[in-house]
Amino acid sequence: MPEDNVRTGWFFRDGPPPDDNAYFENMIRCVFQAGLTWKLISDRWPNFKKAFKDFNIEVVADFDEDDIERLLSDSGILRNRAKIEASLVNAMEFLKVKEEFGSFSNYMDTLDKSENYKYVKKELSKRFSRMGPKSAMVFLYSIGEDIKHED
To answer: Is the CB of residue 125 less than 8 Å from the CB of residue 138?
Structure first.
């Protein structure tokens, strides 16, 4: 979880995110967070919000190669092609989830959360790009799920 000295105002610990765009934003934050310091991401997050159009799922799902090049040239964000492309793929997957379940929250309600979310982490890792078990764990914690830290 986050370093003790870094404020993490993006965690929804008192209740779930208000809508699918907020779930999507947290997932993309976890994707970009992987392997980097919390402070680095926190300091640049306002730039990410602008670059990714406030994480509007429909808008990001329509990004094309020109948008990828725009993002790769944006010095205000982390310019990692794999993570940028994963963000676009995940936006498209969020649209599929919305079509199948009505909302991301409804989708989460269908998943088996026993054994410290073992199945959920596996399902998120299969369904979403660059959402490995550790990123999935941070994501679940950030959206208010009762996941326990694992060593």
So the answer is: no
For residue range 98-123, what is the model confidence (pLDDT) as tens digits?
A: 999 999 999 999 999 999 999 999 99
Q: What domains does the chain contain, in order, with CATH numbers? A: 20-142 (1.10.340.30)
Interacting residues of 103 by C-beta distance below 8 A, sequence separation 6+: 19, 20, 97
Count the neighbouring beta carbons within 10 Å of the beta carbon of residue 145. Answer: 17
- The model carries a pTM of 0.92
- Measured CA to CA, the distance from residue 15 to residue 143 in angstroms comes to 8
The answer to whether 128 touches 27, Cβ cutoff 8 Å, is yes
Here the tokens at position 129 are: 């790009």
Q: Are 129 and 86 in contact (CB under 8 A)?
A: yes
